[in-house]
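Continuing the batch. This is chain 6 of the set; chains 1 through 5 are on the previous pages. Same settings as before, nothing changed between runs. Recording input and output for traceability.
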Amino acid sequence: MALVKATLMMELAGYFAAPAPDPMKPGKDIAKAYKNYLLMGMNTGGFPASNVVDAPTGMTIGGVFAQQLPVGAAIGSQIATALTTMALTFLSGQQIGPPVAAPSHTPGLIQLFSGPQPAGMAFAKELANVLDTWTKTWVVSGLIPGAPPVPFSGPLS
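Output for chain 6:
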């Protein structure tokens, strides 16, 4: 499979079509949708994703929403930190360590949460765009078994 931004956007749009009565739900929904998106990825060696841990990230993001912080920069920054922690749990076949994931998504998330919140579909589109762009910059390294093993390193696809 491959990383398909439209799939992430549509899953997020379904979650944000109506307001959530519980502030924890949007955080869990974002983490779940992002996990589903990541599990579609493949590393440069051609091996599929095998696991991503999303539960603590969903609770952390939900906690950020529950705080009702008045400053969008703080919201975006805290959500970016939670997603970076989730990124470090990404595993794929023959991978030899966590991905190298620079915090390039932080400015996009800060901008998204600093302005007026768009309608559900527009919010889902912007969030999916930030996450897709960031994810495709990660560098995943590994070794293809053999004699000698063949190293690989590069972005997810």
